[in-house]
Amino acid sequence: MKKLLTTICALVPLIGTVKAQEFTPTQIQQVKQVTELALDSDLSWQLLESLTSEVGPRLPGSENDKKAVEWAKQQFEQLGFDKVWLEPATFPNWRRYRESGTIITPSKQPLHLTALGNSIGTPKEGLTAPVVMFETLDELIAAPKGSLENKIAFVNYRMNRHIDGNGYGPAVRARNTGAIEAAKKGAIAYMMRSVSTSHHRFAHTGNSRYKDGVSKIPNTAIANPDADQIERLLNAGHAVSVNINLQTEDLGEGTSYNVIAEITGSDAPQQYVLIGGHLDSWDLGTGALDDGAGVALTMAAATHIKQIARPKRSIRVVLFAAEELGLWGAKAYFKQHADKLDNIVAAAESDFGADVVYGFESSVSANSLPVVRAIAEQLAPLDIKYVRANNAHGGPDLIPLRQATNAPIFALHQDGTDYFDYHHTADDTLDKVDPDKLKQNTAAYAVFAMMAANAKTTLTGKNP
Amino acid sequence: MKKLLTTICALVPLIGTVKAQEFTPTQIQQVKQVTELALDSDLSWQLLESLTSEVGPRLPGSENDKKAVEWAKQQFEQLGFDKVWLEPATFPNWRRYRESGTIITPSKQPLHLTALGNSIGTPKEGLTAPVVMFETLDELIAAPKGSLENKIAFVNYRMNRHIDGNGYGPAVRARNTGAIEAAKKGAIAYMMRSVSTSHHRFAHTGNSRYKDGVSKIPNTAIANPDADQIERLLNAGHAVSVNINLQTEDLGEGTSYNVIAEITGSDAPQQYVLIGGHLDSWDLGTGALDDGAGVALTMAAATHIKQIARPKRSIRVVLFAAEELGLWGAKAYFKQHADKLDNIVAAAESDFGADVVYGFESSVSANSLPVVRAIAEQLAPLDIKYVRANNAHGGPDLIPLRQATNAPIFALHQDGTDYFDYHHTADDTLDKVDPDKLKQNTAAYAVFAMMAANAKTTLTGKNP
User: Could you give the residue ranges of the DSSP H alpha helices within B286-327?
Assistant: First the structure.
């Protein structure tokens, strides 16, 4: 025991030395200051409140999307960022005008539904047909060819609830390609249980696609209680027919803008920490959790860093355009900056609501790990655990970055247990965000970004 | 201490004697049997599932309302009730066809709203006007005459959550007469925060009225998150205008039917215990909590009594028509039976969802209280407390009975803490009912009705 203590005591100064090499005592003091400032400030809340109320829903290409771009630019300027600029991104411009559904037989009743993004519309009076139910997409894929002629295919797959949202991937398969598989079997429309853990009567929208050579059919999700209802009626032996009425439009190519702002670094301004979220949202809710929160908290985190001290490297906040329709802003950004991606010393996107950050994870080179551990140590007082797997993904808008380069990627894992109760529904509104949790998120991003920008060692990706 | 014990011991046989006078040991045994049967059976769930799925929403006068009447009659017959019959009731026949809302300025976004029952419609393109907000109905009443010309009056009163639903009364004032008060000040439409404790995006409908000599204006409730949104925008200094589009119709007088069924008593068949609920529902949800549960659990409770033993007095289940539009079925029933109301030896309506029954309360004469206490004793194993106030109201459809006569009224108090999260919204669906709690409710009604029917003493009202 005595020997162990001696060993520990011998190691302590060494650990101190490593830390001292990466961060000066003043820098560590600044981390504590930015934590306090972020936990005390309601800047992120004010930004989120303003964006979700004064702009509201922000479907790419819509009037509100333009307002959101203008809003973000003005806010960055008023917050005193050193540089603020826009970069264009194009995307398939799609609109939802009206939508409604009705169970026709065995008894007429409302059917709460929503068009999936990119869905074609129905005739003006809608489209009525019998429903054929499948428990999974694979069951639909296994259906005999032609077996769904003049039918509506209904995939009734239930999403699982989990803190890290791992139920989403398996469930979203049926959204991405369900309409294609249904059309292959002759169905005239596709309908799915919402990719959602909610038991409230909200249908969950989200992107979907068609395939060349396969007919495009109307593509819709129904609220979970409505999926239960149809399941009960079918299980009771009733023939169930429904009317689906979707009025949508494909407007061709649209243009929006990534809104980018920078706190310029004092020592290596060309190197930067990239944080951000996506500025667009679905049209049903006001995009508070998805992704107003990510926008607001990263804007506020960078502002708080600037309020404490100019960082050595730059902090760049990127508010991506048109994420919901297929990461179009992210694709444009990483293409536009393709020859300078090495300048990114750390990247993290917040796009998973604003429940507490419970874990911090990197995806970096071995010689970057001491910096990561030092950051984790400063995040611990915020009740954030260090996830040592070193396998962070870092948010959907970083997918093109991961695909293009070996960048140092970070994740501040938010508790997603309830996220899919609201995600992509009309119920994603400001009241679903807890102001105190939003502050904790802001503090976490401020600590991470400040330290990644100030570390002596320049962070590098996992496989250099 | 010894003296106290002696006194208690001396009293025990006396209490035993009182009970023995009211109920035979066999009857007490039957109460235990009906409790077990009700807790074990899923009859009430099956009835509720069938009504809310196979019939669905049941707006008075609608096609589904007719189906519900037919459904109830058939179910009663299949369940083996001794008599089943219909009695007509007329009511003002009103329909909601379509409705939508939009915040127009400062930023276009959806406004989740619903027409209040009896509301006139708007022009086809809706009606757009600036919003003037009041915190309470009284503030609106205090507004200067003419001050709301060409405006939409908005009462933003927040309902309180409480186990006994006591927040409903104060909140519902703004629904009953808000449109009248708004029109008096010149408003062209009335809009209110939903009479609801929900933070989800569901607007709460409910009945409302107009007044002769005051213009009828469109009358609507908005979902609570939407009320928050408008409040924030107004508080931030924005002029807020909204478009309200209600397509409704007054169809004149409609007719529906109270569905009545009886288990005929062996000794005094003309005397009866009245239990029931209302068969109609609003059109938005499927009326699971309001009041499918009350219908299903009282039908099942009477059935279970019959399965154990024929009661001395009759058990009559009354499924009232058109409650939501103004207690029209109840008014018709108590008018139709006006000369025989003395035959009612106990009356209780279940119309407050299906969360656990936590309290049992009477409104009876002093000499009926020993029976009440004996019933309370048999309800205690179901975790139901005896509420000694002897001031039960007994459900909305018993209001005409209370007004007409001094009847023995009972309440089986359901926990209403969450009831107004769902009540009168699209979200009042089967999944909001807990099957085990529904069984507890069914058992409570079975015990109460069986004992009230079998007691030696005929129960009488409070002030004979």
Answer: 293-308
pLDDT at B463: 80
DSSP state letters, A414-442: E--TTGGGTTTSTT--GGGS-HHHHHHHH
Report yes or no: A125 at the B interface, CB cutoff 8 Å: no
Strands A152-155 and A83-105: unpaired
**Set of chain B residues whose Cβ sits within 8 Å of the Cβ of A103:** 56
Question: Residue A463: its pLDDT value, please?
Answer: 80
| Rounded Cα gap, residues B266 and B453, in angstroms | 10
Is A272 near chain B, with CB under 8 Å? no
CA distance linking residue A429 with residue A50, whole number of Å: 12
Say what the ipTM of the complex is.
0.93
Query: Out of A53, A64, A109, whose CB is closest to B232?
Result: A53
Chain A: residue nearest B56 by CA? A109
- pLDDT, tens digit, 9 for 90 and up, residues B313-353: 999 999 999 999 999 999 999 999 999 999 999 999 999 99
Strand, coil or helix: what is B210? coil
What is the Cα–Cα distance from B457 to B452, expressed in whole angstroms?
9
A205 CB near a chain B CB, below 8 Å? no
**Could you give the domains of chain B?**
20-88+255-454 (3.40.630.10), 99-251 (3.50.30.30)
A14 — pLDDT class (breaks 50, 70, 90) = very low
Question: What is the C-alpha separation between A428 and A196, in angstroms, rounded?
Answer: 12
> By the CB < 8 Å criterion, does A103 face chain B?
yes
Distance CA B23, CA B451 (A): 8
pTM (predicted TM-score): 0.94
Of A64, A201, A426, the CB nearest to B427: A201
The answer to whether B225 contacts A199, with C-beta atoms less than 8 Å apart, is: no
Q: Which H helix or E strand runs over A134?
A: strand A127-134
**pLDDT tens-place string over residues B184-198:** 999 999 999 999 999
At residue B438, the pLDDT reads 98
Contacts of B228 in chain A (CB under 8 A): 429-431
For residue B392, give the amino acid letter. A
3-state secondary structure chain A: CHHHHHHHHHHHHHHHHHHHHHCCHHHHHHHHHHHHHHHHCCHHHHHHHHHHHHHCCCCCCCHHHHHHHHHHHHHHHHCCCCEEEEEEEEEEEEEEEEEEEEEEECCCEECCEEECECCCCCCCCCEEEEEEEECCHHHHHCCCCCCCCCCEEEECCCCCCCCCCCCHHHHHHHHHCHHHHHHHCCCCEEEEECCCCCCCCCCCCCECCCCCCCCCCCEEEECHHHHHHHHHHHHCCCCCEEEEEEEEEEEEEEEEEEEEEEECCCCEEEEEEEEEEECCCCCCCCCHHHHHHHHHHHHHHHHHHHHHCCCCEEEEEEEECCCCCCCHHHHHHHHHCHHHHHHEEEEEECCCCCCCEEEEEEECCHHHHHHHHHHHHHHHHHCCEEECCCCCCCCHHHHHHHHHCCCCEEEEEECCCCHHHCCCCCCCCHHHCCHHHHHHHHHHHHHHHHHHHHCCCCCCCCCC
pLDDT at A2 over 50: no
Q: Which two tokens stand for residue A432?
A: 């679903």
Interchain pair A431, B109: CB under 8 A: no
Say if the Cβ atoms of B64 and A109 lie within 8 Å: yes
Low-confidence ranges of chain B (pLDDT < 50): 1-17, 19-20
In chain A, the N- to C-terminal Cα span, in Å, equals: 41
Interface of B with A in 207-226 (CB under 8 A): 224-225
Is there a contact between B429 and A54 if contact means CB atoms under 8 Å apart? no
Cα of B425 to nearest chain A Cα, Å: 10
Tell the residue number behind the tokens 């004992």, with chain if given.
Answer: B451
